[in-house]
Design a protein that fits this description.
Blueprint (H helix, E strand, L loop, with lengths): L1 H25 L3 H24 L12 H9 L5 H12 L14 H11 L2 H24 L4
Length: 146
């Protein structure tokens, strides 16, 4: 089973790494370089997670590391609200998507925009991003990494 998981990991990592390298080769830019680094980061974290799953003490042993690697995998997701806040800043206002309630619902973000201007939705998304990052980092401290 470990070999199967490692084979699937290797195939997906090579495929995504190749696509990221090709995109960087065809159009060198900072965003394509960050995409390649992100693929490498996820490939390393998933490899360590697979190795932690197949340790002799398993998922519930005294030296488990699975939670540590899961938190590191989820940590870049804290950047998603920052990207939305950046798009709001570029447009100068929050544009309500028609028929799409989004992550928080359009009502909350539109209400904040009416109350504070375009800074309102940005502040809320920045607070959500910081809360995600702080909670994941505090969870990382509780995991054993020996």
């Amino acid at each position: 089973m470990k070999r199967l998981c490692l084979a699937i990991w290797a195939a997906l990592s090579l495929l995504l790494g190749g696509l990221a390298a090709q995109a960087l080769w065809e159009a060198p830019s900072l965003s394509n370089g960050c995409y390649l680094l992100l693929v490498g980061y996820y490939a390393f974290c998933f490899l360590q997670l697979i190795c932690a799953f197949f340790r002799p003490w398993g998922l519930l042993g005294p030296r488990r590391r699975t939670g540590y690697w899961l938190c590191l995998i989820l940590l870049p997701l804290a950047l998603l609200p920052l990207r939305v806040a950046y798009e709001i800043w570029l447009e100068g206002a929050y544009r309500s998507a028609t028929g799409d309630s989004g992550l928080l619902g359009d009502g909350v973000l539109v209400w904040l925009q009416d109350l504070l201007g375009y800074v309102g939705p940005m502040l809320l998304l920045l607070a959500i991003s910081a809360a995600i990052a702080i909670s994941l980092l505090s969870l990382l401290k509780t995991q054993t990494t020996r």
